Amino acid sequence: MLEFVTRDGTDHSNVESRVQQILAQLAQQRVVIDFDAATQTCNVVPKSPD
After folding, report:
1. Could you tell me which of 18, 7, 48, 42 has the C-alpha nearest to residue 30?
2. d(CA 35, CA 9)
3. Which of 2, 4, 20, 35 has its CA 20 to 30 A from that of 41?
4. What pTM was computed for the model?
5. How many CB atoms neighbour CB 28 within 10 A?
6. What is the per-residue pLDDT across 1-47, written as a single tens digit (0 to 9) for each?
7. What are the helix and strand counts (H, E) for the chain?
């Protein structure tokens, strides 16, 4: 999770608060973790509407 929230390098706010924000969004099912097998990478993306 830490790698994701520090990836772009442009947001200089508290890293721990950004991690907590992502964890909260995951818990609320507002975002999901998308794994790309071709590139072996993960991204946090908005959840698609059902």
Report:
1. 48
2. 21
3. 20
4. 0.70
5. 9
6. 556 666 666 666 787 888 888 899 999 999 999 899 999 988 888 89
7. 2, 2
